[in-house]
Design goal:
heterodimer, A: 141 residues, alpha/beta, 3 helices, B: alpha/beta
């Protein structure tokens, strides 16, 4: 189970809506306790994909390295990656799977007509052949 | 001792240690020590064939070992080694099916393929890429030729013009036999002749606030080859809204500029020029002239930047304005910064959809007064007036070098710039007709004279170009 606190959740949604109609991306920092994860901070990152950013995203490893450093310095862990699917459901696509990494939760936000619609979290496997749905809790208003 | 930082998810394999100290002469030695000590971590980092998994990047301090000696990268013993995943994805898998290059293409692109910076991977990127060219004129000509030759898979051209003889001095994508054809058709034919593997999308219209987002949305990169301020601001704003790189170029007489706007976190055209110049202050190429070779240089710089962005290599002109002076044969460079208060790309943009750019550039003011028709005269009527021996003064407000190229018989040359101080040569009560190349400058002359109390001044519509079209074809058009 992964739970996202209100502040990081607002950061993620705001970032995704701002970057719409392109895909946004970023990292989630927080704590890991007995397999349950709590996200306490979201770090929006630049989509570094060269090409149609409306349907692709790419995180710079340097940005992840920096996020990991900052997390360590403050006693947090890098526990997940988020990205958006503009005008498209929050599923884990073949492209998402092929370029994933099994060490993190992957939260996908569906942004429809510029507004947040729904979200899901996924745990990809080591060989990048399948991804399991993970229970996701976000603050509901 | 070097230190390997362990990502959270892998700490279950390292007894919850967040860093592990290792010795070893190379990165490979260090990783081998790690996996020897914690065997379960191995399958997370290495495939069954013993290669680093595709999503694993290893950094020594701040450097990616891919750009050093890979896993043979040497260690002194005080480094911090980080394991950083590469993560990407996207809603669709459309871009997944990377098209293979045919044998014909491999032969065609061989000089690219043997460049390590391009190679099969880069050439495939070029083939999958799409570039929108705004304009198939001076800048668009070399751009279209080279993008086609380089193998950019899909090239969109937006242009509504037809090829004119006066284009051929610089628009090398068109030939003499193309005069009168649509530039779109002429350019597309030439590009397909150079490279039949590419697709050319033709947009037979001007770029407008109504169609710009729709057209440009489908392309990875936009290259601006326009010659006027309203379209330049339109392209800039559309690219800022769509978050697409805008490869900018402009030319005037013997000087050119190039930059890359709205690319990643870089500045936009408005960060450089928040406001357009007053209409008429900066002459267009049609008014001011241009060295025919100049757009070749600037257009090829634009093509180079577009290719680099597609390939992801080198340093682009993002955040730099390149200035080129053909007479002094000098390149200079200005640093540009994104303006946090920029209305389109700043932190709190106020322009979030396209506006009326004619109005923004002062070309069509909000409450434009319709030009009084009695203040204008066309070429045929002027001819009749001249033939009937009417007593009136025809003044030509062009420059002396234009007067040398062609003139209307009986016209008196007073260049627009000299007119204010030469008004007293003229009788404010006389009938005066002002004429220039196409009617814009002479309208300004008419306005100026009216402000100074001239009673009977009229503008000649269409200038000497209309004279050549309608009255005397032996007068050359330029």
């Amino acid at each position: 189970m992964i739970e996202i606190a209100i502040e990081p959740w607002e950061t993620m949604v705001r970032h995704a809506e701002k970057i719409y109609p392109n895909e946004c991306c970023g990292a989630m920092l927080g704590r890991l306790d007995d397999g349950s994860k709590l996200v306490t901070e979201a770090v929006p990152m630049e989509n570094a994909y060269v090409g149609q950013q409306a349907e692709r995203y790419e995180l710079r490893p340097e940005d992840l390295l920096e996020a990991d450093r900052q997390a360590r310095a403050r006693g947090l862990d890098l526990i997940g990656i988020f990205h958006s699917h503009p005008d498209c459901d929050a599923y884990f696509s073949a492209t998402d799977l092929k370029n994933s990494c099994p060490w993190y939760s992957f939260v996908v936000l569906s942004i429809q007509n510029g507004k947040f619609n729904h979200a899901n979290s996924f745990l990809p496997d080591l060989d990048q052949t399948s991804a399991e749905r993970e229970e996701l809790k976000w603050p509901k208003f | 001792m070097a230190k390997i930082l362990i990502p959270t998810a892998l700490r279950q394999f390292t007894e919850q240690s967040d860093s592990v100290e290792v010795t070893g002469a190379t990165v490979r030695d260090a990783l081998d020590q790690l996996t020897a000590r914690y065997p379960n971590i191995k399958k997370n980092l290495f495939s069954d064939q013993g290669k680093l998994r595709s999503f694993v990047n290893v950094y020594v301090n701040d450097e990616d070992i891919r750009y050093l000696d890979k896993d043979a990268t040497k260690l002194e013993g005080n480094e911090t080694i980080s394991i950083v995943p590469s993560v990407a994805g996207g809603a669709t898998a459309l871009a997944e099916a990377a098209p293979a290059l045919s044998n014909e293409e491999v032969a065609r692109y061989s000089r690219h393929l043997i460049l390590p910076e391009v190679g099969m991977e880069g050439q495939t990127k070029l083939k999958q890429a799409s570039v929108a060219m705004i304009g198939a004129g001076g800048l668009g000509a070399p751009l279209g030729l080279y993008l086609a030759a380089a193998g950019v898979g899909r090239i969109g051209i937006v242009d509504f013009d037809v090829v004119d003889a006066s284009n051929l001095q610089r628009q090398v994508i068109h030939g003499t036999s193309d005069i009168g054809r649509k530039k779109l058709d002429s350019a597309a034919d030439r590009m397909h002749d150079i490279n039949p593997n590419i697709r050319v999308d033709k947009f037979d219209s001007g770029l407008t606030s109504e169609n710009a987002l729709e057209i440009l949305r489908d392309y990875d990169i936009v290259v601006d080859g326009t010659d006027n301020f309203p379209t330049r601001y339109l392209v800039n704003d559309a690219c800022a809204i769509l978050k697409k790189p805008n490869v900018y170029g402009s030319i005037f007489r013997f000087e050119g500029q190039a930059s890359v706007f709205t690319h990643q976190d870089g500045p936009c055209y408005r960060c450089l020029y928040p406001e357009p110049p007053p209409p008429g202050l900066v002459p267009s190429c049609a008014e001011g002239g241009v060295l025919g070779i100049l757009p070749g240089i600037i257009g090829v710089i634009q093509a180079t930047e577009a290719a680099k962005i597609i390939l992801g290599i080198g340093a682009t002109l993002k955040g730099r304005l390149l200035l080129y002076d053909a007479l002094g044969m000098r390149f200079r460079e200005l640093k540009l910064r994104r303006n946090p208060d920029c209305p389109v790309c700043g932190d709190h943009p106020t322009i979030t959809k396209l506006i009326d750019y004619q109005e923004f550039c002062g070309i069509r003011p909000l409450n434009a007064q319709p030009v009084a028709t009695e203040a204008a005269i066309d070429a045929l009527e002027l001819k009749r007036k001249l033939d009937s021996g009417d007593n009136f003064l025809l003044i030509d407000v062009r420059e002396p070098y234009e007067y040398q190229i062609a003139r209307i018989p009986g016209a008196r040359l007073i260049p627009l710039g000299e007119l204010p101080k030469r008004l007293r040569e003229l009788d404010p009560n006389a009938e005066i007709i002002a004429q220039c190349k196409s009617g814009a400058r002479s309208q300004k002359a008419v306005d100026l004279m009216k402000q100074h109390g001239f009673k009977n001044v009229r503008n000649m519509i269409g200038g000497i170009t209309a004279w050549s079209d309608k009255v005397d074809p032996s007068v050359p058009k330029y």
